[in-house]
Please model this.
Amino acid sequence: MEFGHVGRVVLADDEPVVRRALRTSVESTGEFHVVAEAGDGHEAVEAVRAHLPDILLLDLRMPGLDGVEATAELRAPEPDAAEAAAHIVLMTGLGLDADVERALALGADAFLRKDTPREELLAALRSVRDGDAVLSPEALRQVLEGLGAPAAARSRRARERLDLLPPREAEVLGLVAEGLSNREIGERLGRAQGAVRDLVGRMLAELGAANRLQLALLARTAGPGAAGPPR
Model:
């Protein structure tokens, strides 16, 4: 992220009063600017395609096209590269549930409760913008466990993909799968945070993953020992 870059955000919620409150919070420090608002999932997808934001702040439950369906459309197997670059942060009035888990598995980057305090919201947006972890290890475990056991064929294919990783990347992937941030991984391994960020970015490209969560899902699908310390 270049110095002075203002993060571009699209807000999607069917309640105008909620959008106004979110806009006030998002723009309160000058780090982020709301470039468009959307009142349903269809408008959210179109706004991302028209404005190419850094982040889509997306209500999970909206009329027409809900947050899960909007995430699926924006994370289609072969989306436009520009629209696929937008990070997706789900907003929900509830905690982690099956709909949140599905959206995260499809490629959403994080989820937040709608009553998240302003500072926590901004901290999450910064982390997502910078490609860092947002889900806590506990939340990550809940998501992975909620998706059930992978089929044997999927596990085999995932192991084949991960076997191509150099040992250094496999070691970092194992820590990503634990829910650690780039800073925490750097501290654990004695490496610079920037070096870890570069390795994670390389793995995202090499493995065709949309975000860190999908890297963790791939490691889990591959099974124990597929990602971890150098072998």
Q: What stands out?
A: The CA atoms of residues 110 and 134 lie 6 Å apart.
